[in-house]
């Protein structure tokens, strides 16, 4: 009799423990929906730093001010990846110019995942120069299931400004000093590893990212062809008068440019590159 009571007690204890465990398991966050609007968080990612440090607040001061003046409602954040960076919303404390871009991409991907994607929140990204390669690598490796990268990365829209998707000859100048310069050289092993398409659809999570790439014929650092990659859904080129750094600072006026969705438009006077970036993350397109 006592043995039967003991078995019954153990059975009930096990059932109670299972019930408590079931009730306390946190359900996985559902994927957010795609939509137009200015409520998304926007993460700004800077480019290569010859000095090994950037002031994120100054680097994107013009762009963030422009977004605010246009009544952007979401938070305007900055991601820094050099230990010397300051005034960034997040800084990779071990970052140097000799950290591979894949390593930085892993840090960025997990930053977005841990703070937003795991909670079911989506973000937009505006990246300048080498920063665009970091974002591209983050989405590429997340979609491929590379160890250390998160499965879910809810980045709705990405805009790259003067990013050397096809490499830059400027990489040769410092390639013997810094790994990141070497990886930005045309036909580098890093660039080849990213393939010839932009990471748009993540089959692991069912999520789609919309890309807009922007370049300028007057860049001087990244060619007009390298800056648009040639495979993004939306591509914009400025004819003249916009330098590499001005792609992230010029926010007013009309500038001779053209845009490609399915085919190139005629050259005409269009919005500034910063306003182009704002419109690109404001309106989401999956077609």
UniProtKB/TrEMBL annotation:
Keywords noted in UniProt: Signal
InterPro entries named in the record: AB_hydrolase_fold, PGAP1-ab_dom-like
Signal peptide, first to last residue: 1-30
Classification via Pfam families: PGAP1
GPI inositol-deacylase PGAP1-like alpha/beta domain residues: 41-170
GO MF annotation terms: hydrolase activity, acting on ester bonds
UniProt keyword Signal present: yes
Domain of life: Bacteria
Name of the protein described by the UniProt record: GPI inositol-deacylase PGAP1-like alpha/beta domain-containing protein
Organism whose genome encodes this protein: Streptomyces dioscori
Lineage of producing organism: Bacteria, Bacillati, Actinomycetota, Actinomycetes, Kitasatosporales
């Amino acid at each position: 009799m006592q043995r039967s009571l003991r078995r019954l007690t153990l059975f009930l204890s096990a059932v109670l423990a299972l019930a408590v465990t079931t009730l306390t398991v946190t359900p996985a966050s559902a994927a957010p929906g795609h939509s137009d609007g200015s409520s998304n968080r926007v993460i700004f990612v800077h480019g290569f730093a010859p000095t090994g440090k950037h002031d994120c607040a100054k680097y994107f001061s013009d762009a963030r001010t422009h977004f605010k003046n246009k009544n952007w409602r979401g938070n305007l954040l900055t991601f820094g990846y050099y230990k010397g960076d300051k005034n960034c919303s997040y800084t990779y404390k071990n970052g140097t110019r000799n950290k591979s871009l894949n390593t930085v991409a892993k840090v960025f991907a997990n930053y977005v995942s841990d703070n937003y994607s795991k909670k079911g929140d989506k973000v937009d990204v505006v990246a300048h120069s080498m920063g665009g390669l970091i974002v591209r690598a983050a989405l590429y490796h997340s979609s491929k299931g590379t160890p250390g990268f998160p499965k879910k990365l809810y980045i709705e829209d990405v805009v790259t400004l003067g990013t050397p998707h096809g490499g830059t000859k400027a990489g040769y100048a410092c390639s013997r000093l810094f790994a990141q310069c070497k990886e930005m050289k045309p036909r580098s092993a890093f660039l080849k590893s990213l393939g010839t398409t932009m990471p748009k659809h993540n089959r692991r999570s069912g999520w789609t990212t919309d890309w807009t790439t922007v370049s300028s014929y007057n860049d001087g650092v990244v060619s007009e062809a390298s800056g648009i990659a040639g495979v993004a859904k939306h591509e914009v080129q400025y004819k003249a008068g916009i330098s590499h750094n001005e792609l992230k600072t010029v926010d007013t006026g009309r500038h001779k440019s053209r845009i490609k969705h399915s085919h190139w438009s005629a050259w005409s006077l269009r919005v500034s590159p910063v306003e182009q970036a704002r419109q690109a993350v404001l309106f989401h397109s999956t077609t």
